[in-house]
Amino acid sequence: MNFANKHTVITGGANGIGRCIAETFLREGATVTIIDIDNNPIKGADFFHGDIAKKEVLERFVSSLNRPVDCLINNACIGCGGLLSGCSYEDFEYVQRVGVTAPFYLTQLLMQKNLLAPNASIVNISSTRANQSQPNTEAYTAAKGGISALTHAMAVSLAGKARVNAISPGWIDTTGSTFEGADAAQHPAGRVGVPADIAEMVLSLCSDKAGFITGENITIDGGMSRLMVYHNDHGWKLEG
Ligand code: NAD
Fold it and tell me: Measuring CA to CA, which of 1, 136, 155, 167 is 20 to 30 A from 25?
């Protein structure tokens, strides 16, 4: 993989998985630009402070770019509860703007300004929650369903111009904690995920070696969503 001449833009690159993605691309010699609402720059990366839920912020951000983008990583998202916690109309809509509208509009702006490099790669960070839920997660889950569907729509529209793929992480610890016992054992892989599990796949999907992969969603969850769960099976018990 050679990213020496590649420009990578990462939304939400100041913390967590996005920060690890930024550090991974910097390690490979890429030029990295981050946009984040949290003013927490990374040494060696360009940093734009702003809220990607705002149309005018996205427009100012794209106007500030001084070279075409080879890799666009739509990583930022937030949760905001749902039906059981009084998530308001405005709260719900805000999450969709961060998680779905911004990835769409950022891509559209890059195209309009001729800033999408030839053979670009777009990676959207979805979630296993696009397909399964805990209670009270409507805003986030809808955004993740949206970005998963957006991925195959964009892959088809951008045929010949850019490859567009999604990654659906499961439980990825971004705090550096150690999880043992049931937290680890419930995953077929035997552990909780770490940001590098996602970042290395983002890098692979952006490399020329992934040139035949587009419109795809790759689940990285230690096998958790493949586990069939029945009461009393493997020690699982439904309480209450
Ligand atoms: P995080 O909260 O640690 O980091 C998210 C980053 O996005 C932060 O730097 C935050 O400031 C930024 N951000 C949030 N709203 C923004 C906005 N409006 N404008 C600009 N920047 C904004 O989250 P994370 O755990 O690193 O998650 C990264 C991505 O991975 C998200 O899309 C998340 O849904 C997805 N994901 C995470 C997990 C997990 O277990 N950590 C699991 C599945 C999916």
Answer: 155
